[in-house]
């Protein structure tokens, strides 16, 4: 629950760093929902709230559940900006109506007269009160960049963030390359407030906070007379302090304290326009990315004009230089992401969760007919050859693949692998590889590169050409290995081709097995435990070595 606790504060003599300004609700900010005939609840609309909130006494009056028979236990803790967590009394699900629309509304109950009824984001969308055209899920501000930079499983730590973005964490608050100019209605007369009385035990705390803000060039002392004086809460939201004021309007932010008058040099949390200005600033920072993200909306028309071309170019440039891309280090561990799609392979070399180099190529026509496990292993061969000067001679190189059978194949004896995989595994003996399975949804970079590979960039190395001979050799050796005549071999192929169950298994081998047994076709589930040992050659299904 963000900014949801709008309690009235009658302690005018208290000046504290945790005061939340009271807000008088208007009809534009509220919505009334019917609980039962002649019984309604008026909620405050809060699109920033993660849950719905009901004061306990309001719930009892509206539903008649005085004994709380419908209330369940809840371990939820609600957090309000600048305050400690508030434990929920319990949770309840009630049926509510707004016109012809009706939903089961889950609410957290809070005990106390000081709380308001809050209608959260999900309920506002369900009742069509809010129409979301832009949010941080569609157009991430920071999260997207962090996902790109932390594409491997390495955790993003506080130290790593500070190292990457020192300008943001320097001093009391970072500073954005953005300034804000306040515009006021000149017909409104300025107001002056006397200094608030501060209890003696907390005066030293207030003095320390003022000194900290002044030393960080967030506020400045005011010596000359001014016509206005406003009151702000100190330390509520430092993120807004990243926006500097543009000039002469600084005097408008003058505020009184027991230690003298100060004015804000940065945009404080207390002015009503701060959230909107900060959000606009964030959107400007990711303007290029948002232009491209808009094309992915379900009902958006795909338009590719100069604006989109410019945005695409800017994103590509950002992805190919610091801080997204980093220099190679001989000390840091190396992790390689690799992935294969139907028509291409992609790879990224990472250190400390940050990319050092990218690579991708298209698959040849013959490679496109490989089984999925062979494509995935080919992606590892490709990345090792492409990043040879980075990975050769290292004690260990971690390889992340979203194809789980590969992890098992690399742990088994070489003779247990199919013919083509054997050649690939032999070729990889140059490198000390440790293959680890990572879910595809976490393989952001490699997955993208394998689907957006460089066109007309198929590999033409000696080894790739050598792989093409494996199929011909295997076809010739099948009859000799099985010790059957050619006529008998053709008979087996004919029956295998007409066997629906066997063809379903062969399809799973080529396309890749699902991550759970129950997701495989019923006729193929009996083979699921041996999926990493199965392969196809010349229309036949084999287990382990040909």
3D structure, described in words:
By secondary structure, the protein is of the alpha/beta class. It contains 17 helices and 20 strands. The chain has five domains: 27-126, Beta Barrel (Cathepsin D, subunit A, domain 1); 179-278, HIV Type 1 Reverse Transcriptase, Chain A, domain 1 (Roll), CATH 3.10.10.10; 286-318, no CATH class; 335-460, Nucleotidyltransferase, domain 5; 467-543, no CATH class. The protein has helices at residues 56-63, 121-126, 143-149, 158-164, 166-169, 200-215, 274-285, 287-293, 306-319, 372-386, 388-391, 404-409, 419-427, 444-451, 462-482, 486-498, 500-511; strands spanning 30-36, 39-45, 52-55, 77-78, 86-87, 90-98, 101-110, 118-119, 179-180, 219-221, 244-245, 255-257, 260-264, 335-340, 344-351, 354-362, 397-401, 433-437, 534-537, 540-543. The strands form seven sheets. It has a five-stranded mixed sheet with strand order 16-15-14-17-18.
* Low-pLDDT windows of residues: 1-23, 143-154
Name the helicity range: 25-40%
CA radius of gyration is: 32 Å
The oligomeric state of the chains shown is single chain
CATH superfamily heading of the largest domain: Ribonuclease H-like superfamily/Ribonuclease H
Distance between the termini: 61 Å
Lateral arrangement of strands in the main beta sheet: 16-15-14-17-18
* Structural domain count: 5
CATH fold group of the largest domain:
Nucleotidyltransferase, domain 5
Structural class comes to alpha/beta
Number of strands: 20
Fraction in beta strands: 15-25%
The overall pLDDT average reads 77
Determine and state the CATH class of the largest domain. Alpha Beta
Major sheet summary line: 5 strands, mixed
Shape: extended
What's the total helix number? Answer: 17
CATH architecture of the largest domain: 2-Layer Sandwich
């Amino acid at each position: 629950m963000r900014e949801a606790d709008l309690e009235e504060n009658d302690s005018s003599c208290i000046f504290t760093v945790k005061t939340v300004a009271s807000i008088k609700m208007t009809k534009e900010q509220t919505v009334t929902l019917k609980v039962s005939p002649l019984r309604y609840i008026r909620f405050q609309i809060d699109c920033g709230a993660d849950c719905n909130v009901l004061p306990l006494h309001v719930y009892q009056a509206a539903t008649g559940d005085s004994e709380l028979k419908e209330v369940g236990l809840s371990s939820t803790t609600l957090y309000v900006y600048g305050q400690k967590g508030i434990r929920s009394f319990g949770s309840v699900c009630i049926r509510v109506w707004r016109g012809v629309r009706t939903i089961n509304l889950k609410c957290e109950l809070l005990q106390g007269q000081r709380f308001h009824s809050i209608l959260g984001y999900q309920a506002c969308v369900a009742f069509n009160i809010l129409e979301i055209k832009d949010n941080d899920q569609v157009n991430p501000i920071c999260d997207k960049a962090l996902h790109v930079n932390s594409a491997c499983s390495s955790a993003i730590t506080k130290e790593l963030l500070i190292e990457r973005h020192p300008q943001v964490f320097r001093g009391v608050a970072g500073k954005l390359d953005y300034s804000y100019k306040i515009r006021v209605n000149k017909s409104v007369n300025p107001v002056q407030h006397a200094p608030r009385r501060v209890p003696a035990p907390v005066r030293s705390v207030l003095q320390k906070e003022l000194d900290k803000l002044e030393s960080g060039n967030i506020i400045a002392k005011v010596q000359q007379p001014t016509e206005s004086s406003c009151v702000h809460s100190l330390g509520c939201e430092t993120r807004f302090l990243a926006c500097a004021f543009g000039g002469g309007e600084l005097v408008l932010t003058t505020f009184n304290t027991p230690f003298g008058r100060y004015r804000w040099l940065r945009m404080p949390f207390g002015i009503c326009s701060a959230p909107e200005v900060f959000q606009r600033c964030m959107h400007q920072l990711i303007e290029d990315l948002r232009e491209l993200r808009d094309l992915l909306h379900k009902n958006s028309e795909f338009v590719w004009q100069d604006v989109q071309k410019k945005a695409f170019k800017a994103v590509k440039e950002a992805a190919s230089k610091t801080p997204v891309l980093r220099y190679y280090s001989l000390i840091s561990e190396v992790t390689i992401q690799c992935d294969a799609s139907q028509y291409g392979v992609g790879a990224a070399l990472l250190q400390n969760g940050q990319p050092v180099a990218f690579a991708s190529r298209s698959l040849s026509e013959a490679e496109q007919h490989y089984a999925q496990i062979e494509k995935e292993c080919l992606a590892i061969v490709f990345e090792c050859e492409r990043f040879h000067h980075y990975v050769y001679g290292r004690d260990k190189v971690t390889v992340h693949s979203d194809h789980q059978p590969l992890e098992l194949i690399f742990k088994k004896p070489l003779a247990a692998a199919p013919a083509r995989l054997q050649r690939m595994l032999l070729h990889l003996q140059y490198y000390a590889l440790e293959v680890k399975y990572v879910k595809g949804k976490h393989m952001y970079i490699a997955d993208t590169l394998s689907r957006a590979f460089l066109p007309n960039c198929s590999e033409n190395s000696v080894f790739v050409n050598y792989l093409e001979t494996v199929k011909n050799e295997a076809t010739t050796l099948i009859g000799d290995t099985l010790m059957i005549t050619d006529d008998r071999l053709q008979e087996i192929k004919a029956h295998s081709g007409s066997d629906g169950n066997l063809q379903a298994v062969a399809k799973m081998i080529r396309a890749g097995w699902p991550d759970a047994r129950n997701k495989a076709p019923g006729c193929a589930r009996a083979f699921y435990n041996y999926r990493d040992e199965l392969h196809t050659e010349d229309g036949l299904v084999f287990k382990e070595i040909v």
